[in-house]
């Protein structure tokens, strides 16, 4: 099972997020975050809670490895909504994981993509992108640069 084994402990996060999504914006906002992550089920499940202190919200992620499908499913919730967003699903190839799902942004249906890159045991990168044209083009709207804090 290749996946999120590296993503345990405490991480400092440098966030870079588009100010307006799906609006042709090129204005980015940057802000800090901190995540505490843990592994369960012998590496087949991962949990993390992330805080964004300057933004006034936090979130949590549950990642589960489906043994039959040989795929990961990612479930995200935040204090802004109090509910899970639609799940993402995908796999790892080496140090790169790609996960896709259907969602909506302000009433517009979107195809969402998460890309995880394990840079080293001390660094990782996550990015989120949306497509509104059947995956022909993608707008990256949130990037997290993670560095191990512990």
| Helix residue percentage | under 10%
Report the C-alpha radius of gyration, rounded: 15 Å
Q: What is the H/E string?
A: EEEEEEEEEE
Biggest β-sheet, characterized?
10 strands, antiparallel, barrel
Strand arrangement across the biggest beta sheet: 1-2-3-4-5-6-7-8-9-10
User: Strand pairing plus helix content: what structural class?
Assistant: mainly beta
The end-to-end span amounts to 25 Å
Annotation, overall tally of beta strands: 10
| Content of β-strand | over 45%
Task: Return the average pLDDT rounded to an integer.
Answer: 95
Query: Number of helix segments?
Result: 0
Model regions low in confidence, pLDDT < 50 over at least 5 residues: none
- What is the overall shape? globular
């Amino acid at each position: 099972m290749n996946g999120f084994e590296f993503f345990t402990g405490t991480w400092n996060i440098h966030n870079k997020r588009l100010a307006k999504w799906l609006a042709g914006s090129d204005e980015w906002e940057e802000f800090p975050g901190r995540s505490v992550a843990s592994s369960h089920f012998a590496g087949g499940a991962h949990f993390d809670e992330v805080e964004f202190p300057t933004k006034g919200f936090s979130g949590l992620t549950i990642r589960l490895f489906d043994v039959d499908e040989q795929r990961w499913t990612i479930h995200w919730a935040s204090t802004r909504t109090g509910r899970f967003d639609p799940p993402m699903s995908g796999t790892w190839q080496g140090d790169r994981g790609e996960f896709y799902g259907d969602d909506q942004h302000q009433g517009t249906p979107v195809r969402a993509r998460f890309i995880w890159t394990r840079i080293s045991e001390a660094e990782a990168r996550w990015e989120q992108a949306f497509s509104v044209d059947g995956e022909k083009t993608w707008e990256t709207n949130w990037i997290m640069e993670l560095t191990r804090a512990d």
